[in-house]
Write a structure and sequence with these properties.
The chain is of the alpha/beta class and 149 residues long. Helix content is 38%, strand content 21%. The protein is built from five helices and six strands, in the order E-H-E-H-E-H-E-H-E-H-E. The chain has a six-stranded parallel β-sheet, with helices on both faces. Strand 3, helix 3 and strand 4 form a beta-alpha-beta unit. The model has no long low-confidence stretch (mean pLDDT 93).
């Protein structure tokens, strides 16, 4: 089974839902048959990708939160609730403080369990958790597909 980490910006208001659906169709769709996607339980790309995968594919989905889902943004909690029947597993890593180290640990946890990463960084944000995830994937010698949004 192909295992894929999805990572991306939380800032997604500059594109329409239809534009994101088109991007996901192009860049997630080809990997979806027989795949297992790992998605961070955050707002933005995480939630949008989760909803798209749940609505448009039969792929397995694991959602990973650095703490608990109850401590994630409302947008992320709603996306998980709406997709609950399609989610294979929700992993809560139990971080006490939701700061950058917890999110980076979550990102490494996902990359360590997958074969590749598809990243959707915001085109004007050079240093982000998305970039950290993409760089960590490269350090692990794993392929990555980068789709600036």
């Amino acid at each position: 089974m192909r295992t894929v980490t999805i990572t991306g910006t939380r800032r997604t208001g500059h594109k329409t839902p239809a534009e994101y659906a088109d991007l996901f169709e192009q860049y997630l769709g080809p990997f979806a048959p027989g795949a297992h996607f790992y998605v961070g339980g955050a707002a933005g790309i995480d939630s949008l990708a989760l909803l798209w995968l749940a609505d448009r594919t039969a792929a397995a989905i694991t959602v990973v939160a650095p703490g608990t889902m109850g401590r994630q943004p409302a947008e992320a909690q709603e996306a998980v609730a709406r997709s609950r029947g399609r989610i294979k597993e929700v992993v809560e890593l139990g971080a006490a403080e939701l700061q950058a180290p917890a999110y980076h640990a979550r990102n490494r946890w996902m990359v360590d369990r997958t074969l590749m990463t598809i990243g959707f960084p915001h085109a004007t944000e050079p240093s982000t958790g998305t970039r950290q995830t993409i760089d960590y994937t490269a350090e692990q010698g794993k392929p990555r597909l980068i789709v600036p949004v």
